Amino acid sequence: MLWSGWGDPAKARELPEQVRRLLHDLLGVRAPAVPAAGLESVRMPPAALEPRLLDALAGLVGDGHVLTTHEARVRHARGKSTPDLLRMRAGDGAGAPDAVVLPGGHDEVARVLRLCAAERIAVVPFGGGTSVVGGLTAARDGFAGVISLDLGRMDRLVEVDAESMTAVFEPGVPAPEAERLLAAHGLTLGHFPQSFEYATLGGFAAARSSGQASAGYGRFDDMVTGLTVATPEGDLDLGRAPKSAAGPDLRQLLLGSEGAFGVITSLRLRVRRAPAEKVYEGWRLPGFAAGTAALRALAQDGPLPTVLRLSDETETMIGLARPDRIGGGEAGCLVIAGYEGASVAARREAAAAVLSSHGGVPLGEEPGQGWAHGRFSAPYLRDSLLAAGATVETLETAGFWADLPRLYDAVRLALLGALGSPLVMCHISHVYETGASLYFTVVTAQEDDPVAQWERAKEAANTAIVEAGGTISHHHGVGRDHRAAYAAEIGPLGVAILRAVKDRVDPRGVLNPGALV
Ligand SMILES: Cc1cc2nc3c(=O)[nH]c(=O)nc-3n(C[C@H](O)[C@H](O)[C@H](O)COP(=O)(O)OP(=O)(O)OC[C@H]3O[C@@H](n4cnc5c(N)ncnc54)[C@H](O)[C@@H]3O)c2cc1C
């Protein structure tokens, strides 16, 4: 993973000339005056952990598994939001931990947490490091130091129960590896977020992730049937049956807890049979309102495709759903519909009738295949845009169908008001019977201080989301960036309840301080 950008540097691409011209003519984008920093020149606070504490940590996880090198600290300093990348490109590694600790199993995690609580060392669990909400940078004040607890060594598929259709994994398994391990049993998770190439199963659970095929496979939190969690005060082993009426479901308290309540050390996940057939196709709908109505009909009355995505007019015109075709988009609103598993032909035919009845025109399989082929390449495009002098970032929310048009307008207007004349694009890619998510992509020319520029826009968007009745996050989580808006969403009593839980499982407050609550 590129330390100041996304993914495998070998997959990075130059921006096509057509896109450069578009950025310049439409938005006034110019190449940044200052070149991006090199890894060796990143500035970080001096490491604060005393040698005796480093020795004690090494005593728990083994000598080679406590890293204090410049590179290890830089690579664990932040997540992958645009402000994170802009700061790293500017050589600002202020969030870096003092050490990276790699436990080999549950018991080592538990011992590390007890030591850290006793010595007041902040602990930031680290999965794939793809957080986009500031979930990986701990508050330092009042602590003897900060460690990044990298779960990368805990990367095993522990057990497959083909009768119950569940699989038990350690938390550090990256998503592609999970799919590879399950494929050997003819199974799949079906969880394909855009961060698929690097994010881990523990991170998905901790941040309540949702993948691009959520219509067919559900969100990640729908897949978790059991969790083992280590806290400084002891362990939790949750989920002994598929469903239960035995009081509130404590799994739900841990899902989305972002390392603030404990470290997920094992997950039992619902799995599905790997689909024999996959078909993706494109449709053109006359406008976003008609497209939204079509998606609502599919979500409420069926049949629901496995993948269902609607781009608004601007996203369709730019061609963002097809990073291989950027700049070559078309009129109307593009729908991508994908069908996996059983009865593909029948579901496809029935969904086609619904899409047609809303004015949809079939575009065949080519746009669908193009989307499937390029579905993980947009983050690489972001790096190229940042290097070219554009600020590009995404944000997301969700609301009930009845509120969706108002939410869409409110967020768009807030972004336009905060940034002047940015390009604001949106799509719906997660639908439910009662509502859907809205996912915005914003592109604008970088100002002298692009981080402050984005913070201004993000603040305006957050306020608009809260006022229009949307949730502050459909699938990115809370981290530090959404903490204030999340508090507004759940109210003072809600915050006090979360605080009480945290005080019980983490009385010294060492678990990911500053995140969530
Ligand atoms: C380019 C890009 C595209 C993305 N696309 C999507 C998308 O389509 N859908 C989506 O849902 N998200 C998406 N994300 C967000 C991100 O990938 C998810 O939040 C993902 O769940 C994070 O997984 P991770 O393993 O990288 O976790 P990390 O980023 O390492 O951690 C996320 C949070 O969880 C905590 N944590 C991690 N592991 C554990 C553990 N085992 N126990 C307790 N706490 C833990 C961390 O401390 C942190 O607060 C995207 C991010 C990027 C950069």
TrEMBL record:
Keywords: FAD, Flavoprotein. Gene3D superfamilies: 3.30.300.330, 3.30.465.10, 3.30.70.3450. It comes from the Bacteria. Pfam families: FAD-oxidase_C, FAD_binding_4. Residues 93-274 form the FAD-binding PCMH-type domain. PROSITE patterns: FAD_PCMH. The keyword Iron does not apply. Coiled coil: none annotated. Belongs to the FAD-binding oxidoreductase/transferase type 4 family. This is FAD-binding oxidoreductase. It comes from Nonomuraea ferruginea.
